[in-house]
Design goal:
The complex is a heterodimer of chains A (362) and B (126).
Chain A lengths: L1 E2 L3 H6 L3 E5 L2 E6 L3 H10 L2 E4 L4 E6 L3 H8 L11 E8 L5 E11 L2 E6 L4 H10 L6 E4 L4 E7 L3 H5 L15 E6 L2 E7 L8 E7 L3 H13 L4 E2 L2 H11 L34 H10 L3 E8 L10 E3 L5 E10 L6 E8 L8 E6 L2 E8 L7
Parallel strand pairs in A: 1-3, 4-14
Antiparallel strand pairs in A: 2-3, 4-10, 5-8, 5-9, 6-7, 7-8, 10-13, 11-12, 12-13, 15-18, 15-20, 16-17, 16-19, 17-18, 19-20
Helix pairs in contact in A: 2-7
Chain B lengths: L7 E2 L4 E6 L2 E6 L1 H7 L2 E5 L6 E2 L4 E7 L3 E5 L3 E7 L9 H4 L8 E7 L9 H9 L1
Antiparallel strand pairs in B: 1-2, 2-3, 3-9, 4-6, 5-8, 6-7, 8-9
Classes of the chains: A alpha+beta (362), B alpha+beta (126).
Chain lengths: 362, 126
């Protein structure tokens, strides 16, 4: 089992440690609901060092990234980030990722921990362009500082102005006294904030500095369980649950990162264009339980007569809304806003309604 | 760990407070801690007669779903209605306000299999 550079610190600060994507990670500290609320209302810090980092460099860096990802890399500018995915050659998804553009000859791809090896092989296998590739996952640590007060608190640690940074941009700055820190206004919680990348050897120093700077704002360490409830309240996809090798980005509601523009001849473009023009047969939809009940991964979605029409891909009790919320793939006839569906919870048909994302609107 | 001496326990982490033929059932301090934040208590067996070790309901935390089992055979007389809107009461006060059901014991032969506080403590400290 792999450990992040902050493993000992998590044990010392009361983290409940569990195996996750091959790493020993803190699933919670004081309790998932309290942690969730801390991030929504103030700020919290997550160790997300398990995430993978792949550098793509050289004169053909753009060509490779454009080919491998569905979003339009040409739309990026230096210091800009986009959410994207790797199609797998069969119309499914290898992984979802962030693409950072340093310049036209230098990109950083940030990928899911569970897929690092798969992604690394995929990128190498498709590198007929001859871009220079580096897998920096094992030497790179990452913190996500998320919440409405995150940027204001982190401003204390740098003289570079960060509080006015646009969403999904980055700067390389001196932070907590350490030079060349990658600082981006990203995160997967919908609460605002930033993600900070640095070398493993600086992890403890930066983590302590972040906790100290955030103390007056009420910062707390947050576990992966709250990261999951936070992303689900926004309707963000989790690889392995909502998207995988068999789901199309079009069906997953990721049409907005699938850009059929001139010059973006990505893997599976033809397959995805066909799905878009024919209309997908199933779509990932969001639903809310009408009364009581908690939908969970793999529960059946049914019609009023109990016929199975889909499966829940993610589900939880929303800590902010105090309602059961979830997502799942259903055929288009059941996917309309307001449609009545039923979730089979322990052989009971529990009524639910198709709703718009995000679940939590702040 | 709070394990009151006047209660009896199951290996599945339920407690039972017996008063003649009547009893109150809940889950232990250890169980609520292991589960974490409880978000839903689902008991739809009110009025039913259940045998010892039969499932009387389900308790859901953010990440887990667990069944709850009858410590003895009995009729489920009442479900703690306050938990519908405040399931977290089970976390805060598992032996008090966070009780789950009230039952009438119909057959107390299973009583001999229940654990004393001391025996239960030995199990969880394993």
């Amino acid at each position: 089992m792999k450990k992040t550079a902050l493993n000992k610190v998590h044990f010392a600060t009361g983290g409940k440690m569990v195996p996750f994507a091959g790493f020993e990670m803190p699933v919670q500290f004081e309790g998932v609901n309290a942690e969730h609320e801390t991030v929504r209302l103030k700020l919290g810090v997550f160790d997300v060092s398990h995430m993978g980092e792949i550098w793509v460099e050289g004169p053909h860096a753009f060509d490779l990234v454009q080919h491998l990802t569905t979003n339009d890399v040409a739309a990026l500018f230096d210091g800009k980030i986009q959410y994207s995915c790797f199609p797998n050659g069969k119309g499914g998804i290898v992984d979802d990722l962030l693409v950072y553009r340093y310049n036209t000859e230098k990109y950083l791809l940030v990928v899911n921990a569970s897929n690092i090896d798969k992604d690394w092989n995929w990128v190498n296998d498709n590198n007929s362009f001859g871009a220079k590739l580096t897998n920096a996952s094992d030497v790179t640590s990452q913190l996500a500082v998320q919440g409405p007060l995150a940027l204001e608190a982190m401003q204390k640690l740098t003289s570079t102005k960060i509080t006015d940074m646009e969403y999904y941009t980055f700067k390389v700055i001196e932070f907590a006294g350490i030079k060349d820190i990658l600082f981006s206004t990203t995160g997967y919680t919908g609460a605002g904030g930033c993600e900070i990348y640095f070398k493993n050897e600086d992890a403890e120093k930066i983590y302590q500095a972040v906790l100290e700077a955030g103390a007056e704002f009420g910062i707390k360490p947050i576990g992966l369980a709250a990261r999951d409830t936070l992303r689900l309240e926004m309707g963000f996809c989790l690889y392995g649950n909502d998207i995988d090798d068999t789901t199309s980005p079009i069906e997953a509601g990721l049409g907005w990162i699938t850009k059929f523009v001139d010059g973006n001849d990505f893997v599976d473009r033809d397959k995805m264009e066909k799905i878009r023009s024919n209309g997908p047969t199933k779509m990932l939809k969001a639903f809310e339980i009408s009364d009581k009940g908690v939908p969970r991964h793999d529960y059946e979605i049914c019609d009023a007569s109990g016929n199975t029409i889909g499966k829940v891909t993610s589900g939880t009790m929303s800590p902010m809304l105090k309602k059961g919320i979830g997502m799942g793939y259903v055929t288009s006839e059941y996917g309309k806003l307001g449609s009545e569906i039923y979730i089979n919870i322990r052989e009971k048909l529990v009524p639910a309604k198709i709703v718009k994302l995000p679940f939590y609107k702040g | 760990m709070n394990i009151p001496g006047d209660l009896l326990y199951t290996k599945d982490h339920e407690w039972i407070r017996v008063d003649g033929k009547n009893a109150v059932v809940g889950i232990t301090e250890f169980a609520q801690k292991e589960l974490g934040d409880i978000v839903f208590v689902d008991v739809d067996t009110e009025g039913e007669s259940l045998a010892a070790e039969e499932t009387f309901g389900t308790i859901e935390a953010v990440k887990t779903v667990s069944e709850m089992f009858m410590p003895v055979s009995g009729t489920v007389d009442e479900v703690n209605a306050a938990l519908a809107d405040a399931p977290e009461t089970v976390n805060k006060d598992p032996y008090g306000e966070g009780w789950i059901i009230k039952i009438t014991i119909t057959d107390d032969s299973a009583m001999q299999h229940l654990l004393t506080a001391e025996a239960y403590k030995a199990i969880i400290e394993g």
